[in-house]
């Protein structure tokens, strides 16, 4: 009932409240950005690790293939000598 007797909020108080809300939203946004950057960095590290493993696997496979080629070449040489 005393609605008309209440003092309206001062503009400075409204501005201070809005500034506080804005700062809180900005801080939340910065936190989300930091989490996103950390996730992106983690994904890049995972991709690099997978790439390294893939290169290592390919290198091992090439070594196996080279040994097979060497064995086959030796067998062919032995067969040619027997003729």
Automatic annotation (TrEMBL):
| Source organism superkingdom | Bacteria
Compositionally biased residues, Basic and acidic residues: 60-70
The Low complexity compositionally biased stretches are 45-59
- Residue ranges, annotated region (Disordered): 45-83
What is the protein named? Translation initiation factor 2
């Amino acid at each position: 009932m005393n609605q008309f007797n209440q003092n309206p909020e001062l503009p400075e108080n409204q501005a201070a409240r809005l500034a506080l809300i804005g700062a809180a939203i900005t801080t939340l946004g910065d936190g989300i950005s930091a989490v996103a950057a950390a996730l992106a960095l983690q994904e890049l590290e995972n991709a690099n690790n997978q790439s390294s493993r893939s290169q290592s696997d390919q290198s091992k496979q090439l070594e196996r293939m080279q040994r097979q080629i060497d064995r086959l070449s030796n067998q062919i040489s032995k067969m040619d000598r027997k003729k």
